Amino acid sequence: MIFIKFFLLLLFLELHLINGYQGCYKVLGRLKCPTDMYRHRHVKVILMDKDYLPWETDDEMGSNITDCWGNFEVTGCGEDFGGWNHPDPYLHITHRCPEKGHTVSIARRIKIIYLNQTHLPEIIYIDTALLD
């Protein structure tokens, strides 16, 4: 009898740990390059899920390209291992905006914007983010 109770307890714990938590996000925002008024066009914005476990890599949840005014909308879903582990969304932005005081841009610069965990149907709004 004790063996059966122990087995059921282990089965319950295993099922709880195997299940993941899924979260879907929608992010609206605008990017602006303060040093070159044309460098916020066609910038790739990737919605990522930060994974802190050592055997996991960050997951891409969705991506999009900014319009000619720097506006973007990106949506996506992510799932993390374990029922306690919620996706940790952030934006990974690859751009060519020159640094302040420079007129020449390097081939590729990265900007990271960490987001709060606001799931759909709520929308995350980003005020104008400067690419500096």
Automatic annotation (TrEMBL):
Keywords carried by this UniProt record: Secreted, Signal
InterPro entries reported for this sequence: Transthyretin-like (IPR001534), Transthyretin-like_sf (IPR038479)
Signal peptide interval: 1-20
Localization, UniProt: Secreted
Domain of life of the organism encoding this protein: Eukaryota
Name of the protein described by the UniProt record: Transthyretin/hydroxyisourate hydrolase domain-containing protein
Record-level GO cellular component terms: cell surface; extracellular region
UniProt main location, coarse: secreted
Pfam families registered for this protein in UniProt: TTR-52 (PF01060)
Family, per entry: Belongs to the nematode transthyretin-like family.
